[in-house]
Target: Nucleoside triphosphate pyrophosphohydrolase
Amino acid sequence: MPDDLIHDETAGIERLLEIMRRLRDPDTGCPWDIEQDFDTIAPYTIEEAYEVADAIARRDWPELEGELGDLLLQSVYHTAIGSEAGHFTFQSVVRNISNKMVARHPHVFGDESREKSADQQTADWEAIKATERAEKFQQGALDGVAIGLPALLRAYKLQKRAARVGFDWPDTSDVIAKIQEEAAELVEARDTLTPAEQFEEFGDLMFVMANLGRHLGIEPEAALRAANAKFTRRFSGVEEKLRKIGKTPQESDLTEMDALWDAVKADEKAAKS
Model:
C-alpha cells in the first residue's frame, strides 16, 4: 500500500486516522496495538487527560501541544476499536458531538437571544442536558455522573446534581459544622472502631470536604492538584537545602526538615514581594 498519506505532514486528521488503521491492521499492524481494546486503552486515556491538565497548570505551551496530540490519539484509538466492532466510526463521533454543541447553543446557532447572563446560560445548558438525559431514560438526578471519574471529582459532581433538586445545605456554615462532626467521628473511629469503620468515616469526611469546595466555588480536584504541586515544590526545596549542607532526607530528622520547610516558605514569600 502506498505510504503517501502516512508521510504527508499536511494531511491533518486523515493522516492520523490512516496511521491508526495501519497500526491495527490484523495482518501487517503492530502486535501490541492489535491486542488493545477499550478496557486496556482507557487507563491511558485518563492519564493523558491529566497530563494535559498538568501542562496547563505549568503554563508549558509547547508541552501542551504535545499532550493534546496524545489525548487526540486516544479518541482516534477508541473510535478505531469501535469502528472495527461496528459500534460507531470516527465520523459518527464527530457528527454526534457537533450536533450536541449546536443543540446546546441555540443562542449562537439558533434563533434564541444572546442577551442572557452567564447564570441564565448555565441554567439553560443544564435544562438541555436534563432533556438529553430523559431521552436516554436517565430519570434519577444522579444518573449520568460517570463512575470512572476520580473519586473527588465525582463527589463534587454528585453533590452539584443533588443541589439542583434542592438537596443541599443552605449555608456554608452548615457544611463546616458537618465537617467538624465527621472529623470527630473519625477521631472516635480511630480510637474505638474497626479498620473498616475507620475507612468509612474517612470517606465521609472527604465527601463533605468536597461539598465545602462546591459551596466556596472551588473545584476540589483542581485545589488538591495545586496543593500536591505546592508540596512537591516545597519538599524539593527542603532537599536542595539539605544537599547544600551535605545531607539527604534520610540523614536528617523531622525537626531539621521542618525548619528548612519554613525557610523554603519564607523564600517563596520573599520572592513574591
User: Anything to note?
Assistant: The chain is about 70% helix and 0% strand. The chain has three domains: 13-104, 140-218, 222-272.
